[in-house]
What we know:
The complex is a heterodimer of chains A (about 110) and B (about 110). Chain A is mainly β and about 110 residues long. Chain A has strands at about 5, 10-15, 20-25, 30-40, 45-50, 55-60, 60-65, 70-75, 85-95, 100, 105-110.
Amino acid sequence: KQEVTQIPAALSVPEGENLVLNCSFTDSAIYNLQWFRQDPGKGLTSLLLIQSSQREQTSGRLNASLDKSSGRSTLYIAASQPGDSATYLCAVGDTGFQKLVFGTGTRLLVSP
Amino acid sequence: KAGVTQTPRYLIKTRGQQVTLSCSPISGHRSVSWYQQTPGQGLQFLFEYFSETQRNKGNFPGRFSGRQFSNSRSEMNVSTLELGDSALYLCASSLDGQGAYEQYFGPGTRLTVT
């Protein structure tokens, strides 16, 4: 059974810092890995999708890497801003039919 | 292009009642998945539909059911509601039923069972 863990559970940083969020998964036979952000009481916003054959994806200040063999992914956020404050979730595509297994999330607070 | 829409956004029901939630995917998307989010269990997969067929099902009791229509809109139904069913129910859509495509989530339906 696939299990996804995110460390740290919470992170508080001052504005402008670069930061790394970690995600690990137990079964390396994944289809893809997707990073989301969730604002309080809201749905999920997709940030980046990495296919199992890819090593990294970039979008603006975000860069996500994937190392299937070690069961790890990282989300790098450059020059953090207060608007980046949210819960960040990683999710592993576990089968061919769109089943995502989610981690428990990292709650990020960026202070001005 | 309009995003994934879910109705209603908020719902209050009493234990023992049943409820139907609706999800309209992004135009052109044929796969719709449902997830339950609670503070204790996090986000858990309920089921996935593609071309009106349930392709995958999570570990939930039979009180949770769903269906998909020919226009790809989907509904999920929960019968005999329990207090523990209080949660945010999220629907996601993607282009295809295979695991290669990005999933886009709706804003969710907040269900409260009293």
